[in-house]
Amino acid sequence: MLLVFVFLGSLVLGVPIAIVIGLTAVFGLMDSGINMQVAARRMFSGVDSFTLMSIPFFIFAGDLMLKGGTSRRLVNFASTTFGWITGGVSVTAVASCMLFSALSGSSPATVAAVGSIMIPNLVENKYPPRFAVGLLCAAGSLGIILPPSITMLVYGVVAEQSISQLFVASIVPGLFIGFVLIGVAVIYSKVNNFPVNERPTFRAVVKSFGEAFMSLLMPVVMLYSIYAGIATVTEAAAVSIVYSFLVGLFVHKELKLRDILPTAKKSVVMTSMIMFVIATTDIFNWYLTIRQVPVQMAQVILQISDYPIVILLLVNILLLIAGMVLNPSAAVMVLTPLLLPVVRDIGVNPIHFGVIMIVNLGIGFLTPPAGLNLFVAAGISKLSMIEVVKGCLPFVIVMIIALMVITYVPWLSLVFLK
User: Fold this and answer.
1) Is the CB of residue 357 less than 8 Å from the CB of residue 312?
2) What is the CA angle 219-104-146, rounded to 5?
3) 234-266 per-residue burial string, b: 16 or more CB within 10 A, e: under 16
4) Which residues contact 252 (CB under 8 A, 6 or more apart)?
5) By the 8 A CB rule, do 143 and 105 touch?
6) CA distance 50 to 408
7) CA-CA distances (angstroms) from residue 410 to 41, 141, 350?
8) For the chain, give me the number of helices (H) and strands (E)?
9) What is the DSSP letter of 201?
């Protein structure tokens, strides 16, 4: 009870999540009489991983692509390709988020990059501001679902699962959610009879594709090299930095040498935040293991019901609540050791469970109080937080329905796995 009080009390006081987790673990370890020097060594070993090196690489590569004009080219390509159909502007918004997600691995970054272009565009085309921000927040959540998802990478390290298989497993569910959002946007646009763009010429489509080609090529090459065994995830992430640098500097010619240092500083700050969470959570998970909390939690849940359908529903509810208040990386680090034994006992594939967890946490980006997509969209649209939350609510419901399909149809996640 003391640990629960420390954890919840610190969250309410607004203490950063990494410190909240670390304080809780330290209190627990002190009560167990464990030397704190051991805890310090556990913090270091928690981030001493070759695979985790890919996190700063992916973050830096995404920032370089954003600085190099990638988002504008992807939006232009999506607009040329889809803008002429019913709901074309809203379809363009979702398609742009899907394309940029495959480069950034971050939901807030996707909302910021695409939303800054598409939210004003949607409003200009008579779409209600609430709908515009809700659609962009929902589509932006694909940033941590589609590869190279940084949160999925963290799950792979914690759960000791193949990163390449997790990336492949998340492709179909991510596309499924994207197409569901496109379907909602088309129906809404048709009912309200929103205007559409003129049908582009073949020359215009080819031109926009040519401008975006080098950006579109990066995730294809990266994922192929990982899955084909040509490169590890970390090696592919390092290569993506070089690729992003060369494309931005010499092909798009929008990235300047003076931009490198500020972009690197931004990436270092983001990496430090994630790594601090991972380091402190490693102590917390170690304490939970000592106390056999995962085993006890599995027994409690299995006592409630032994039906896999009910257990998965309970797990989803817990993950949705966690996504509302916890940073995704922290949620993965804390909850994976607790829930993975439970779902394994009922025969759920750990790769499939990873997809379920990440989709849940993706929905958390749309829900207060900790939904980062809400804050980004509010800043772009100049709407109040209440208006943004109201705009997101219908899309939260849509994404929960998609989550249930992904949960109970494992084929969507496992179809391409060997």
Assistant:
1) no
2) 65
3) bbbbbbbbebbbebbbeebeebeeebbeebeee
4) 68, 69, 70, 73, 214
5) yes
6) 34
7) 39, 21, 11
8) 20, 0
9) P
Tell me the residue ranges of DSSP E strands in 157-229: none
Q: Looking at the whole model, is its pTM more than 0.70?
A: yes
Cα maximum dimension of the chain: 73
Query: What size, in residues, is the chain?
Result: 418
Q: How confident is the model over 100-155, as pLDDT tens digits?
A: 888 777 888 888 888 888 888 888 888 899 999 999 999 999 989 998 888 898 89
C-beta pairs of 287-296 under 8 Å, 24+ apart in sequence: 287/25, 287/28, 287/29, 287/32, 288/337, 288/338, 289/337, 290/32, 290/34, 291/28, 291/32, 293/338, 294/337, 294/338, 294/340, 294/341, 295/341
The answer to whether the beta carbons of residues 405 and 169 sit under 8 Å apart is: no
Return d(Cα 65, Cα 75) in angstroms, integer: 14
- How many Å apart are CA 395 and CA 184, to the nearest integer? 9
DSSP, residue by residue, 225-290: HHHTTSS-HHHHHHHHHHHHHHIIIIIS----HHHHHHHHHHHHHHHHHHHHHHHHHHHHHHHHHH
